[in-house]
Amino acid sequence: MRPDPGHGPFYLGVDVGGTNIKVGVVDSQAHSLSHVSLPTQPKLGPEVGLRTICEASRMAIEQSQLDISEIHAVGLATPGTMDIPKGLLLDPPNLPGWTNLPLRDQLSEALGLPTTLQNDANAAAYGEFWGGMARDATSLVFFTLGTGIGCGIIIGDTIVEGAHSHGAECGHIIIEMNNGRLCPTGQYGTLEAYASAKSVVKRCREALDDGRESSITAELDKGEKLTPLLISRMCDAGDELAEELIMQTARYLGVGTTTLMHTINPEMVLFGGAMTFGRNETELGRRFLQEIRNEVKKRAFPVPAEKTQIEYASLGGDAGYIGAAGCARLKFP
Q1: What's the fold here for domain 133-314?
Q2: Which pLDDT score, from 0 to 100, does residue 184 have?
Q3: Which residues form the signal peptide (predicted)?
Q4: Which residues neighbour 233 within 8 Å (Cβ) at sequence distance 6 or greater?
């Protein structure tokens, strides 16, 4: 069935990741009409990447039963540093050869549609703000927890991009000044260095190397790979080290959250991404979120500690392309 024209204008959202490219058609009420996911194949270079984006775009438009002439604009979300006004990808992680790439203009020319560029974490935050868990909020801080820690901040209906397209890099706020852990950026003591998936694995490995007893060791001896998923399984089975690692991660996130609450006083803070331990669907996920809240209540001023909503995000992997479409809606209403 063709979409109701009254739900237009219609936008195309593109979410480029190191593994997959997700593209969807979204209406003006943030409803996804179709979506397609294709492998990024980053080692093949940006030319192949652009062709893949175009292929996924045409597939998504066809699935939506719209014509490309009915698409009003395109929102493009990509990882890493960028120059948003110029539409340039500067040095995106996991995308070799995409350095200083004018991808916004290349995609606009290829599709014949006006296109805007946005950081992927900002886009995901806007997806939750526009059509997800934060749709009734007036301001939002959104953390994505994965290999690293991404963040997006929305105030009013405005994405905080910053003066140099580096706004809301909250995974790199400093939570430990003295002898802090090394972050992949080369800085020490960042939130990402303590609370990302990579950090959880590193802290676990250090504890095991120091002789800490844990059922994780037996799993590794069987050939299991050390991942947050394995650590969470062992936590569910009652392993003391696994429990300690996960709850300590939550407390680090509580410290970072408090800093942002004291800086911008958002109405809502959301957590999404791969390392959320099943979210509200599991006991561990619920305890993880509650531990973040508990740390915030210990550290934040009483009023924001009481009134700020701290929850899990609701859109999952769709947040990026829905938010990218929303960014196109903001730029090309």
Answers
A1: Nucleotidyltransferase; domain 5 (3.30.420)
A2: 86
A3: none
A4: none
